[in-house]
């Protein structure tokens, strides 16, 4: 009968009934011929021309439309905005507002979210370029556009792409004007001190900066790039979809969707290693069609394939596809796409499949693995998305042994630089669309659909992307918008699965130790096939606190309820019980003192305690538990929060404890409580995610785990050793460490766990009880 059961994945896909993906069509096998690396083939199509319109624009608010559009009207009230940027970033740079991330200054800055903003760019058309299309990669939120006095149209939605035909309007000298309307906006302050805006339900935006997640500063502006482009016109090809089929044989599929072709076209492509010297090759293919839309599905074999692996499991080898589409009639196109040779499957849980659970076993390149993760929050409330910041946080994630980031629905479809770095660093991504708590039922359908249609083709060939998800914490994750997102995941991609929301189908979110103020021991005893969110909030380090708390408030402790320290908490220290009550509940568990230093240290210790044991418990429960994502790695705003790396990029104490718990070769103990209420009997485990003991390396022979117990004076109470089975399982239970309660009295206990191989220390960690 088990053979007749089907998983929730299969049942949901059947209900959505998507059209076939290009990957499901019959492929044409094409030979990949050798070529000389660096040789100019001369066979590529010319890349379509572009001209960037980024850089200094004039920005102002108010005045009548007729004045702003008058070519002779002087914008004497304007400041300079360095596009792409948000309105608030430009105001801050010009000195109009104070830094809204500091003190209580966000309230002053917030008023500028509710104005109409005008942007003007005067530019000269570059010679020798056939430019006919004006493209905006991101307007937030509702923009109207004029070029040389001609109204081009409008666009709504933060993540869509506004594109206008300007072939009959462009001249040598041009004036481009954009008006940003005050939308979406529905301010609903919860108190005199706590602003909140429900307008995000009426649009598609980064919603975690509308008041519910440390900041209420709704975004406005031209936040992504602007350029003129040469269009492909009537015959054009969509960006390629690239997916590995067989990693051992190096078999890769390349799919193209072509519009308007009436006759013949040539596809020429080169494949070469991007960060390695593995062999590649080139291919030719002739395609003929008289249909409005046609598809090309090519299958190639890459010699001596170099695989892409997640962090701690191997190298992150990347390839580059340089592909030209050249129709006999019309303009050619050139694409340069990074991809990796890797497969991702979701296998059944033990005893499955289950009709009420997803297939939660992550199988990468045919290898089932436990996945260690965190949640990813949009990096900056002011939309300053510099590459160096992404590299800082993602490098910290890699160093913490993170293999998966859940780009959750409170944020955005992440930028190219995020995915490029995740490809480079071996960090897998679950990408959610920007919906939360069933907002997909309220948000404009066409804006959500455009968001998916724009970003799914942009992201789908990244090896780091392993799952699409409809949004965050929707109890009724259904409706037309959810169905649309699901169908597109299988139609436009088809190489990875789709989940409606998290938690769903065997995933768990739990904040009992924070919101419900339950004992930390609750976190030690959480169980589910997959943990999507859980955590504990803590204060940032003191130097970081001093960056957002004004000098005159730093010596006030306990802080005033409506001062800067309390304002920079998850709910602005407002709702009862307030945030400081939630945070302060943990302090007596770690210290008797009452200073800011003690508060910071104790809350960070509580965060480390509430998270690390759950991580290790889930790892030890493999294969019944298959992965875990603590909440969270990053912050959108400086505050006491759940992040383990604060807004400024400074790791907290918990970051380093979790780093120990996530090591691929790790000896650990499991506890049901942080208190010794009776005789202690803690299971001892060795975790070997990367298979070091079966690698054949002499470094990982003759291994053992030793456990040492100390009292509060660091006097040794007991020592035990455990031999490790050489068969090298991913999870080995070695026995128990036992301690009689009478031997410890009422003293705090410190436990030190050391793992050695060939007499050399390979891992160590410590616990506090």
List the defining traits of the structure above.
30% strand, Immunoglobulin-like, Jelly Rolls, six-stranded antiparallel sheet, eight-stranded parallel sheet, 769 residues, 40 strands, alpha+beta, 17% helix
Report on the structure:
With 769 residues, the protein is an alpha+beta fold. It folds into 4 domains: 139 residues, Immunoglobulins (Immunoglobulin-like, Sandwich); 180 residues, Jelly Rolls (Sandwich), CATH 2.60.120; 291 residues, Glycosidases (TIM Barrel), CATH 3.20.20.80; 104 residues, Immunoglobulins (Immunoglobulin-like), CATH 2.60.40.10. The chain is 17% helix and 30% strand. It has an 8-stranded parallel β-sheet with strand order 30-29-28-27-26-33-32-31, covered by helices on one side. The mean pLDDT is 95.
Look at the structure and give the CATH class of the largest domain: Alpha Beta
Number of strands: 40
Q: What count of structural domains?
A: 4
> Counting H and I runs of at least 4 residues, what is the number of helices?
14
Supply the CATH architecture of the largest domain. Answer: Alpha-Beta Barrel
Strand order of the largest sheet: 30-29-28-27-26-33-32-31
Classify the oligomer.
single chain
CATH topology description of the largest domain? TIM Barrel
- Gross geometry: globular
Radius of gyration, in Å, reads: 28 Å
Average per-residue pLDDT, rounded, comes to 95
Beta-strand proportion: 25-35%
CATH homologous superfamily of the largest domain, by name? Glycosidases
- How helix-rich are the residues, as a percent range? 10-25%
Residue stretches low in confidence (pLDDT < 50, at least 5 long) are: none
Helix-strand makeup class: alpha+beta
Largest sheet: 8 strands, parallel
Termini gap? 47 Å
